Amino acid sequence: MLARTRRILVTGGAGFLGSHLCERLVSAGDGRVISNFIVQALTNQPITIYGDGQQTRSFCYVDDLIDGLVRLMNTCDDVVGPMNLGNPAEITMLELAGMIVDLTGSRSAIEFKPLPIDDPKQRQPNISLARDSLGWLPSFSLRDGLRKTIAYFESLMIARGAEAAR
Question: What SUPFAM superfamilies does this protein map onto (predicted)?
């Protein structure tokens, strides 16, 4: 039996991978854009955008990633090499902020800060090997994934508020 190593390189916060960090994400931003934007929007704080917000990112909902990983683990031994699992649909940070404000019904304003020097202009995975070898494509839209993620964060924040009131 051939041993396989699979590694997730980039995670995006609760619902968009890394859900084990949710408690930490709600209490203090960890630098992950989706969790930061959601917490800022739910608390009507300004949404922090670095630079002009035109840099793009791609987000994959955790259910899609798990489906891809299960398919990858069930492949025959001749499927090798680095394989990207992600969602190639790109969105600008400004569009993402607007979508989250809309979905949360927030009154948050957008606050622009200087762009860090090492911030990439674009992140978009090439998933052609996963599509061709696994028959895998992500199925969750960003909007649907955000709805689920926002609901999850709302429930965490309500639970934390109830705990604090005790």
Answer: NAD(P)-binding Rossmann-fold domains
Looking at residue 32, its pLDDT comes to 81
Q: Report the C-alpha gap between 43 and 69 in whole angstroms.
A: 34
| Architecture of the domain spanning 19-165 | 3-Layer(aba) Sandwich (3.40)
- Find the radius of gyration of the CA atoms of the chain: 17
Domain boundaries, the chain: 19-165
pTM: 0.81
Q: Tell me what the mean pLDDT of segment 116-140 comes to.
A: 89
Contact 121, 82 (CB under 8 A): no
What sign has the CA pseudo-torsion 89, 11, 30, 24? Answer: positive
Strand partners, 165: none
